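Hey all, sorry for the wall of text incoming. These are the two entities for the joint prediction.
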Amino acid sequence: MKFRSACAAICCAILGLIATAPIAAAADDTIKIGYIDPFSGPFAQSGDQFLQVLHYIVDDVNARMPPLHKKFEIVTFDDKLQPSEALIALKRVTDQNIPFVMQCVGSNVGTALIGAVAKNNERNPDHRVIYLNCGALATELTNAPLCNFWQFRFTGSVQQRAFARIKSLPADVKKVYLINQDYVFGHSIEHDTKEFLAKLRPDIQIVGDEFVPLGQVKDFSPYITKIKDSGAQSVVTGNYGPDLNLLMKAADDAGLKVRFDTYLAYLTGAVTAIGQAGADRLTVVMEYNENLPVELKIPAAEKFDLAFRKDHKFDFVASNWVVMFEMLSRAITQAGSVDVLKIAQNLEGMQQKDLLGKTDTMRKSDHQLILPYYEGLLTKDVKYDTEGTGLGFKTIATIPASEEEMPTTCAMKRPTE
Amino acid sequence: MQILLDTLLSGLVYGMLLFMLASGLTLIFSMMGVLNFAHASIYMLGAYFAFTVSKYVDFWAALILAPLACGVVGAAIEVWGLRRCHVNGHIAELLFTFGLVFIIQRAVMMIWGTLTVPYTVPASLNFPLFQYYGQNFPAYRAFMLLVTTGMLVSIYLLLKKTRIGLIIQAALTHPDMVSALGHDVPRVFTIVFAGGCTLAGLAGVIGGNYFSTDSGMADAMGPIVFVVVVFGGLGSLAGCFIASIFIGMVQTAAVMVNGSLSTLFALPPGGDTLFGEILTIPLARVSPLLPYVLMILILFFRPRGLMGTRES
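and here's what came out:
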């Protein structure tokens, strides 16, 4: 009996939450963006932090270039990094007549959203949504058969990152060791890394190609022994989280002297966990870091970062998200109303100067943002350190947007009305 | 030879850390019948306590204070939580500790944030102790071995040579009889629970800075500790010790060996079948699975574990 009444209470509470949600969304003079990402479960950290960054950017864009004199408002939906949960969240987004859905974590979720958004827009032409992809990286998402008119990706694909990664390897590196996580993303990184190694640097020999189980390995010292034996000069890795931190620590403890050329070491928490173990040998390809405005002498961007640093314990690295909201604001203003089809058409081929004054392009053929990449070296020789560690990223190579145009197999169908 | 030495050294350190966690769990499990899901959460708390203490005082103070704090937390959980749930049977206790996992995790996120905290190895221990085959052996590893060995010896002495150890041992197998003889068994429970949590806290203190201290560390450590307990056998510290070291070594060895099952046993390549696939996956990629495979095997062929003293 007790159990039953408890169940009933919980059901009532849930119903109550659902019932109040549309009321909260009914306020006007805002343009709502449904933000679907993990806010509970083991990946809640990403969702929480990204939300802080997005709020900061939205406040800034609302003040500088409000769309149609309205304000962007972010409405969050939890997907627990599960495609099935994301689809339920998308249903709630469309139920509330929110015209934009944004998602930044997980290509598995991104794939599900592309399909579901396309279906929804076909069936409910009056309640169409645009999917703003702010961080699902798999190259496949902007290539046939997955790519879709309603998706716009505002971050570099694995392919673009792999190109930048290999392009920025110094000429004296002749032997590399690949370590990646044993799941879709790790395999995608490994595949594209090898592809560009063969294309751009045939002189480099791959002396090791390893997959580590995702988030399972505590003691990386056996891997370090293997790397040492292979004679590698550089470890090229797409690892992130504990799989990167523990690898670097084990390397430092064992006294292994090699470069670590990484893809994702700029993610929040990595530099804190790695610390001195990465000094002067950890590099990462990234879209932005807080020392770039200093190096390129762009005080406006530096001011923008400083205001962020004041209230946050982590770095600002998401200049591409600023571009996303600026482009979106312009597309809405040009459309004259929140007409989703017109906005999507306006976004196609749109160009926008980023924080550093470089021009980013939303390529029409596959809706992939073409943007420059920067290779940063972790060192103490910088003006702004990362997460109060005394170490920060110093730019040692730049890959301009013009070189980042990768061929695409996308052949999307464009709706006419 | 180098592979052997590497496996021994790496496996030993990891195995000893596992033992530190598992020993407390096995004592609690075998004595009270409580499968304490929150044991790894206490390990995490130990690391975070140590981080805070070492920020304000130093690492050496943390080495003493953090485990004690975990012991106090453990005692509180036992007295105010488990004892109340005990009336409703083991399922209630199980669910209670299961809920604790989430509460502790959320609390840690709220107090210390979701970012990895900069809890680092103290400078006085951050140097290479010696070199073997051109590779450093960090002093901190030796220190970890020292601490875990010290703990092993003191637990042994406590259980075998003292009166309280005698009562704990008796309560492990015959709790009703011990109670009938006039001993306060619930208090023994509290002591064991707090003691187990102290050990988990200590493991957190020395493991947190060697690996990394983040809010996911309990999730990463939890399952493997259960494997050790089941593998070693209920109520047997010796079995627990052997299981810890064995699993530490197996996991390390699997990573070091280049090749797959088929190359290892010189089997013919299996072709395109599912079975062939399993045989040709590099061992390093399945190394974290091996402990679970071992657990399943032992449950099939020796359900009471390596040196278990009783069934159930």
